[in-house]
Design a protein that fits this description.
Layout lengths: L1 E9 L3 H7 L14 E11 L6 E10 L4 H7 L4 E11 L4 E8 L6 E11 L11 E11 L5 H49 L2
Antiparallel strand pairs: 1-7, 2-3, 3-4, 4-5, 5-6, 6-7
């Protein structure tokens, strides 16, 4: 098993990050062109806790190294199952995802959280801490050397994708702030001029 961990701070409030998270794979994000579709399977709010739970199926163009695809076989399309929990009371978004494609050969379990970064925030300049952890385990039988090579290649690709994902999400956050800021200004102008 190989482990990937990353911590990053977005210069946006938790409210901005948690709402823009639903637009992460939109056209504003030119780093997520591999994502073909995001389908919401279920969504409900727990009346006791107020936590929004969402299940989604993410369909992507396969990004595995060519040698892995030729060794393991497989299609050019991959599927990821994601469950997310948004707790407005705790100001916490937790997203857990696992691969469905090749899950009998390679298991990828990822957990992402977004929470206010209280150590780096000040009034009017809120920041959000992003934590990402992934465990990648090759389940294929055979030589340990092959398993290790597959895990190493997978963790390297995961790391590259994580970096691109953060860059793309930054673009989504920037565009969201601009678009919603413009909309807020229009609404205020309407209210002022009746």
């Amino acid at each position: 098993m190989k482990v990937f961990s990353s911590v990053y701070t977005f210069n946006y409030s938790w409210e901005e990050v948690s709402s823009a998270n639903w637009r992460k794979y939109c056209p504003w994000n030119d780093k997520s062109t591999h994502v073909i579709s995001v389908d919401t399977l279920s969504r409900d709010v727990d009346p006791a806790t107020g936590i929004l739970r969402t299940e989604r199926l993410i369909t992507c163009n396969q990004s595995a190294p060519t040698w892995v695809v030729s060794l393991l076989g497989g299609a050019k399309i991959s599927h990821v199952y994601e469950t997310s929990y948004v707790s407005p009371a705790d100001k916490r978004v937790t997203m857990c995802s696992t691969n469905l494609t090749w899950s009998n050969i390679l298991r990828v379990r990822e957990t992402v959280t977004y929470q206010p970064d209280l150590t780096a925030s000040s009034p009017g300049h809120e920041r959000t801490r992003f934590t990402q952890d992934a465990k990648i385990t090759a389940l294929c039988g055979g030589w340990q050397k092959v398993k290790t090579k597959i895990e190493e290649a997978s963790i390297e690709r995961f790391s590259e994708n994580a970096r691109r994902g953060r860059e793309g999400f930054e673009a989504v956050l920037e565009m969201s702030r601009r678009v919603f800021g413009e909309e807020k200004e229009r609404e205020q102008m309407k209210m002022m001029h009746g």
